[in-house]
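pipeline: protein-struct stage 2 | run 1193 | Rab family GTPase
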Amino acid sequence: MAPVAEHLSTVGVKLKRTDAESWEEIKNLDSGFERQAYRVAALRMAVQEQTASKKRQSLPRPVSRGLSSAVRQHSSAATQPFVAEVQVDLVPEAEVARRFDIEEIGNMAGKTQSGQKIYFTIWDYAGQEVFYAMHHIFLTREGGIFMLVFDMQELLTKQEQALKYLSFWLNSVKLHAPKAPILLVGTHYDQVSNQGNLQAVETTLRNDLKALRGVKLIKNQEQTLSFFPIDNMSPAADRAIELRRAVEKSASKLESVSQKISLRWLKVIDDLLKLDYNHVPFATVQELADKYHAGDQTDELLKFFHELGMLVHLRATDTLHDKVVLNPQWLLDKLARVIADEIHANDIYFDERLFDLELEDDFALLRDKGIASRALLQYLWNDEEVDYLVEFMRGATLLSNWNFPERSLPRQRQDEPLYLVSSLLKNSTDSRLDVDIADMDTGLTCILDFSEFFLPNGVFARILSLCAQYSGDVNKGKGAPQLAGDRAIVRFDLSVFALVEDGNKIWVRMARDAHKPAASLKTLVSIFRGARDAMFRDLPWELLLQSPSDDSVLVRYNDMVEAREAGKRLVMSVGTRNAKVPEFAPFFEDGSLTEDEVDTGAVEKENIPLAAGLEYHVFLSHRQYDAGDACNLMAEKLRKRGLHVWIDQETEGNLAEDAMKRGIRESKCYVLFLSKTVFEGAVRMELETALEEGKPILVVHESDPNRPGFANFSAYINAAPASAKHLFKEKESMPFQRRLYLAKAFYEELIARIKNA
């Protein structure tokens, strides 16, 4: 491509498709189905010919250019078929269709061979800090090749700033795609082209860029450098020839490039891409998958292509599951309309529609405090797929509910939904916040310490977002948090605390008069673990406790737990001093701070009377195969809260049918736990019994898409017996929650429904 004199900065993420031969942008996406189908057909015909004729013992070698010489884009594919590894008659598209239908070739799989052309989708991530929160969503483990571009002039003149920038990106890639190859590309070669400058850059990278350790770095072998110097403005066609060769060579070694893929899957994706839609309902994909005999693999194939970055499909909620984004750029552009830097937000500010729709105050609220009204989001997204986009941002913890009144909005819209966009908190300023934190009389204090690796940009904002949502739930809209980019004051009912980001640490300081401070700390740690597991699952961290009597003494939480269990009086601190174990007792007044799934502290017991003839409050019906862990946990927590629970904790089939039916008859209500295989075992009989007995039926479903029991609701509805399908219309299913800060509300609601059943 020719250099562009005036460069416009990327907004969010920009996608381009190219190949390793022309390196020109490809406008028409190609799934690769035709290329692989030709290859499979040609190979099969070659085998048939070899079997039929023993005379062909010596065959000429394949054309060296492989796929690049044999296959063209869609327009010429029918006239230029594929040449296989052995010399065979060319197989045109029509011949493939005539001889091999989709069902027949479905068990074959395409595999990229040596010499075939490699196609790339280039994800150009914006460098502005406000967009960093979006990047981690799309840095998948399947990854690909990461190219980190830096200005060599800056590295030589503003070394600290440049190294910080490179370290951030290197650490981000190591966290999300630890096995991915990385290339460093230094720009402005024309400005620093002498050998002395290049060696100075090399020395700085190798000696001072500590984040390079543990990275799969692709080196510039031809120039014996750790990076690839590029003259951005050179008109020479070969200005990046070494870089291109390195990318091609590295890509050819990627597992995802040579991985075998079912031709059925490729055909489904091929037909989807030809629709030329930004997004389609899941039902459309299911229909195509059924057509090509892959209907039982729809979720699996979507997950595979999602990991490759070809499409976007999430499963956490019905709204997300029902939408398959075929054009990721559409989604990225929508997100960038909300998460925009000052330059691009300026375009929105001068849009006349903002004035015509009377949304100028809404836009100011978003930019100043990170709070978005529903009406503003509808405008920013042109009223297109608003529910899906809200769910997507919520699922990626880019957005949370803001359940506090905002008086700056017009009176007629003050009751509409509001959302906190966490990554925009960098813009938020509150002069009172620093004063209030400084004046706070601090009590129990702990630290989330990320010094072992690093604290990724966006973790703190996500914690604030989740804290604000939880605060709104428990405070019923009173006591709004004070939030800024790196500090906040939040209230959980009668507990007030400050959060401060400092380097690679997050300080949590409870007010001295906080009600049940240990319980609030436990909830906070659970909120952090939820945010971490959502986007930063492999991020290492430690929980440190500050001595209540000496704020210079810090102790690792795990060390303190071990010391308490061993009955020790002293424990080693983080520094050179020892700490007194009894002084840390207030941290354990409400059980373990790292508790999440299991209750270790006291819980309130319920007193729910049972009518004559009833022995149990609830019969918990589930499939042990994929919901045993969840239901055993639920039974334990309900029992601890004073309820009598009937549950088959043995391997399915060990209890007699009459014993199960008796358990249902003796229960106040029947809880159906929905999981992927729920209707494949004894649950059908149990459910029919509950319906015949007229038992109140409550429905709970697996809510974690990473659990083996997770499935979408359409799967439950399709698999349910005809006599029970009405339940999905009449009953509101409750999402099962494991996280402490979510589980409290879940069990309160579940017990209330049992009580009122």
